[in-house]
């Protein structure tokens, strides 16, 4: 028996599917499809906030350099302001590295509720509902592979 996908709630094999405590034979599926829910603006706003957090040190550094050049201060004060502003701007690099990791994870999770549906013995049945786009894709592809490699015995 070939296992196409397995986690604590879902198991897709060449022998059948176990989802949410229910067992299905591959012959039980007449059709499998997916549906996407509405966009969750909380996830989109979170990505925007992360982008803003990455840009903030650059903007503050640029403003500091601009202020240092515009004000009428001594050379030592101007050099100190420019140096401090450049250091603040350089802080954007390590901060961006950390924040980009969070952005990547947010795209893995996705911004929509995803559902896998099937026509099981004539009844429309929701098999999986998740916000995790990566997990959804793995389960859906595993179902497709299992059904593609299953001999039709109808």
Helix and strand sequence: EEEEEHHHEEH
The strand count comes to 7
Kindly report how far apart the N and C termini lie.
21 Å
State the major sheet. Answer: 4 strands, antiparallel
Helix proportion: 40-55%
- Please state roughly what percent of the residues sit in beta strands, choosing from under 5%, 5-15%, 15-25%, 25-35%, 35-45% or over 45%: 25-35%
Specify Rg, calculated over alpha carbons.
26 Å
Overall pLDDT score: 87
Main β-sheet, spatial strand arrangement? 1-2-3-4
Give unreliable regions as ranges: none
Shape: rod-shaped
Number of helices: 4
User: Helix- and strand-based class?
Assistant: alpha+beta
Number of domains: 2
Transmembrane segments: 48-71, 77-103
Keywords: Membrane, Transmembrane, Transmembrane helix
Structural features, described:
The structure is a single chain. This protein is an alpha+beta fold and 154 residues long. The chain folds into two domains: 3-40 and 111-148; 41-109. 52% of the residues lie in helices and 27% in strands. It has helices spanning 41-70, 75-90, 92-109, 133-148; strands spanning 3-6, 10-13, 17-19, 22-24, 29-39, 112-120, 123-130. Helix 1 (41-70) runs antiparallel to helix 2 and helix 1 runs antiparallel to helix 3 (92-109). It is rod-shaped. The two termini are 21 Å apart. The model has no long low-confidence stretch (mean pLDDT 87).
């Amino acid at each position: 028996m070939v296992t196409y996908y397995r986690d604590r709630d879902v198991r897709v094999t060449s022998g059948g599917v176990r989802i949410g405590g229910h067992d299905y034979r591959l012959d039980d599926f007449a059709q499998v499809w997916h549906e996407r829910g509405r966009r969750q603006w909380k996830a989109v706003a979170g990505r925007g906030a992360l982008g803003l957090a990455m840009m903030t040190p650059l903007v503050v550094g640029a403003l500091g350099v601009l202020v240092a050049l515009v004000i009428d201060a001594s050379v030592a004060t101007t050099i100190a302001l420019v140096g401090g502003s450049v250091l603040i701007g350089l802080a954007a690099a390590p901060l961006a590295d950390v924040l980009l990791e969070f952005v990547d994870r947010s795209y893995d999770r996705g911004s929509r509720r995803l559902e896998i549906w099937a026509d099981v013995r004539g009844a429309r049945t929701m098999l999986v509902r998740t916000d995790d786009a990566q997990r959804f894709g793995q389960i859906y592809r595993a179902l497709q592979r299992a059904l593609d490699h299953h001999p039709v015995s109808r």
